[in-house]
Amino acid sequence: MSRRLNQQLLKKQMTARSGAAMIELALFLPVFFIITMGTIETCRMLYLRQSLTIAAYECARMGIITGMTHESLKIQCDNILLGRKVRGAVMKVEPSNLQSLQFGDILTVTVEAPADDNALLGTWLYRGKQMVETVKIMAEH
Question: What percent of the chain has a predicted confidence (pLDDT) above 90?
């Protein structure tokens, strides 16, 4: 008789434990999901900023070469960003006439892209943000 009673008590304890585990899972899973998605989006935005920096740097280096045009820099920038799957990017160059660069002049290349267009999940974290990277380089010719 006591053996049967012990088995019933043990069964009730096991049921109570699995119920507690289900409640813990129900409370923890949404928090874990939000943290995971936020981490993924943050990593994507870091990748976007690095991509913009690379494109701006490479275009700035090309821009100080004699004979370069604004159009050739734009093509180079678009190719770099296309390879890195960046959408909606815009490049700005100061001064716009690269032929007027003299030794010691500063060339500024700015590349910007909307975070919304480049987010993997379209989350609210970066909604409406514009990522901008600028590189300045001195003409050496």
Answer: 55
